[in-house]
Specification:
mainly alpha, 27 helices, globular
Length: about 675
């Protein structure tokens, strides 16, 4: 057995990562071809190859820009949708010929958009991983809001524009348009691979992210190289969006999910290997289509829909099993640290706490009775945001699945309540039910950090929504559960006012728990973990236990918030557009970032802006309701970019101050005196 393992290890070592994937693909073709023939799978295999080829354009663009900038562009789905919408406007609304409409959309969204993205990448060059993630999430939220506001939420149907002639392959009628797409994707993959290996700019792109100064010293402009990379990558994503438009229609919310296929393919390629990303895209496309056909006859609706989870499973599996050495933290050596949070004096903290408590207690007498329940929902979101702030600002861990924890809390609470458990016990057990989920999500943090951890938690959130929400464990096939308010002795908690006060008390307890953790030994270890994990390891601190602890605690707090949100609305569901939808996890982190990094104040302000402000002028206007996400996304983007925009100015100002300071003046006089003495000695 040992000899076999050694031979296998030697073989894989000789083949390399790309060679192993190519050999595996050939083996699948050899074994799978007879099976496909016997089970009449060829129509689904060929359709899957075509679908995968479309997503491979986006995967190639994602890998290219990540290799050269260290920025993982979460917004490729929104960018592809923007290209498709603009293509629709030129082709359908303006009536232009499809080649001209295609070219105009490519130039406007792909090429011109790349200049904007290149500037964003430049300003994020030395940003910490948290801000790099927040910037692209802000871009998603902004684009999604703008596109749905401009084009609506209905799917736009786009007629085919490539050749619809049919040819026969393996006894199956295949459209010429599908062959064209696969051929273009294959040529693009080969061309980009050769470009990286043989072209001077292609070679320079690989050195850009870690040491642009060294690249500049060799006579190559880092700005020019970065612009080339973003132009190519952005155009590939735009092409993908326009190619998929006739296949599935145009819907930004659908595209945000569909382009997870590109995430999974890029992850299987270790976010570095273009050839593997292409092969993985084709594989995911084929697996999705074949499984869709094979599971179509299953008696369970839940089982029938399992084929849609292939991209999400591929993403999570890749981040768990791709060798850690291949997942390089690009640009991490140049990343600056977030400045420490300045603590308020004790008197100010006490005064703010008293004033906040008084405000919350007086609120039912201040606001209209019809608005009070919205404040209760806001308090529930404040608790969820407390859990997110604990992860983000205390330990530097990025989580994009907080609403999945909240949904676990809400659904568990509903099941326990229906089983007859007391309300307070339901709440406590609902929080504890999310702890195992927090531990599971913490496992990738043992080997991943920064952007990779953000992608892993994003994949978990999507898997939870698409795989677990509609299962009997959570909201069931009807995707909804009823949650009743408590009937506590001596308290009128079934009404809006009584329930509001109950939620205020629980929110206060959760805030106290977070503050207690921050000021405990665990809080100090978490801050050290955010600053230098290697230093903690050197001091024999068990960082794995620390990571699990903070994720479990965060999941517990988020689940409590989710259960309280469900009580405020007297029900909970897993609908993507509802409170527990995956997209809210992205919006929450965007809102939290521009509401300050303070552990309590930030989440409270963020919850008010996210949940409450929309019922008051001017946020309740139709225009701002449509474009509220654009405001949140733009503000998050601004907060992430501002240090990078401001940093060169500060450096220049510091240099000027250094030149004009007394110390530098004395040093200059001393240098001049030494030079004069040297000249005099030489003359003598």
């Amino acid at each position: 057995m040992t000899a076999v393992k050694q031979r296998f290890s030697d073989l894989t070592g000789r083949l390399g990562y790309t060679g192993c994937w190519i050999a595996g693909a050939l083996l699948v073709v050899i074994i799978g071809a007879p099976v496909a023939e016997a089970r009449n799978m060829w129509p689904f295999v060929l359709t899957g190859i075509s679908d995968g080829a479309i997503y491979s354009f986006a995967a190639l663009g994602l890998v290219l820009t990540f290799k050269t900038s260290g920025i993982f562009n979460f917004a490729i789905g929104a960018q592809a949708a923007a290209s498709a919408y603009v293509f629709y406007s030129f082709r359908i609304d303006a009536g232009l010929s499809w080649p001209l409409a295609f070219l105009l959309s490519l130039v406007l969204v792909g090429l011109l958009g790349s200049f904007v993205l290149e500037r964003i990448a430049f300003w994020l060059e030395e940003a910490p991983a948290v801000m790099k993630v927040v910037a692209t999430i802000g871009l998603i939220v902004l684009l999604q809001s703008v596109l749905t506001g401009a084009y609506g939420t209905a799917t736009l149907q786009f007629p085919p524009y490539l050749s619809q002639e049919q040819v026969t392959i393996a006894g199956t009628q295949v459209l010429m348009s599908q062959i064209i797409v696969v051929a273009l994707a294959l040529v693009a993959t080969i061309g980009l691979t050769l470009f990286f290996r043989r072209n001077r700019i292609g070679l320079a792109m690989q050195a850009l992210v870690d040491d642009p100064e060294l690249l500049a010293s060799e006579g190559t402009s880092p700005i020019t190289v970065r612009r080339y990379a973003w132009a190519i990558g952005s155009c590939f994503v735009s092409i993908s969006g326009m190619l998929i438009a006739p296949v599935l229609g145009i819907d930004v919310n659908l595209m945000l999910l569909l382009y997870i296929t590109a995430f999974g393919a890029a992850a299987l390629g270790a976010f570095d290997n273009l050839a593997v990303a292409f092969i993985a895209s084709i594989g995911i496309g084929v697996a999705t289509n074949v499984l869709g056909n094979e599971l179509a006859g299953a008696g369970s609706t839940w089982v029938t829909g399992l084929y849609t989870q292939v991209p999400f499973i591929a993403l999570v599996a890749a981040l768990l099993f791709v060798p850690r050495a291949r997942l390089i933290e690009r640009g991490s050596k140049r990343a600056r640290k977030l400045p420490p949070i300045r603590e308020f004096p004790a008197r100010v903290n006490v005064g703010m706490a008293v004033a906040t408590a008084a405000l919350f207690l007086m609120l039912p007498q201040i606001v209209a009775a019809s608005d009070l329940n919205q404040f209760t929902v806001g308090l529930g979101f404040a608790i969820v945001l407390l859990s997110l702030a604990l992860l983000l600002w205390s330990s530097g861990q990025i989580s994009l699945c907080q609403m999945a924890f909240a949904a676990i809390g809400a659904s568990t609470f509903a099941h326990l309540q229906q089983a007859g458990f007391p309300w307070l016990m339901c709440l406590l057990l609902a929080g504890l039910a999310a702890v195992p989920a927090g531990a599971i999500v913490a496992i990738p943090s043992f080997r991943l950090s920064g952007v990779y951890l953000a992608v892993a938690t994003f994949g978990f959130g999507l898997l939870a929504q698409n795989l677990l929400y509609t299962s009997g464990l959570m909201f069931g096939l009807d995707n909804s559960e009823i949650i009743a308010r408590p009937d506590l002795p001596g308290l009128e908690t079934q009404g809006d006012t009584g329930y509001y006060y109950l939620v205020v008390v629980i929110a206060g307890l959760m805030a106290g728990l977070v503050l207690m953790v921050r000021r405990s030994r665990l809080g100090r270890i978490l801050r050290a973990l955010a600053d230098s994990p290697a230093a903690l390891d050197a001091h024999a601190v068990r960082t794995k236990v620390t990571r699990i602890s903070v994720f479990c605690l965060s999941a517990f707090v988020a689940a409590i918030g989710g259960a309280l949100i469900g009580g405020a609305t007297t029900g909970a569901g897993g609908d993507a557009g509802g409170p527990f939808g995956y997209f809210n996890s992205l919006v929450l982190i965007a809102v939290l970032v521009f509401c300050s990094r303070r552990p309590i104040l930030g989440p409270v302000l963020a919850a008010f802006l996210f949940s409450v402000a929309k019922i008051y002028p001017p946020m309740d206007s139709g225009f701002l309701l449509d474009y509220r996400g654009a405001i949140f996304g733009g503000l998050a983007l601004a907060v992430a970019l501002w240090p990078g925009i401001r940093l060169p100015q500060l450096r220049e100002r510091g240099a000027e101050r250094g030149e004009s300071s007394p110390v530098s003046a004395r040093a200059h006089e001393s240098a001049e005196r030494s030079e004069n003495e040297l000249v005099g000695a030489t003359t003598r």
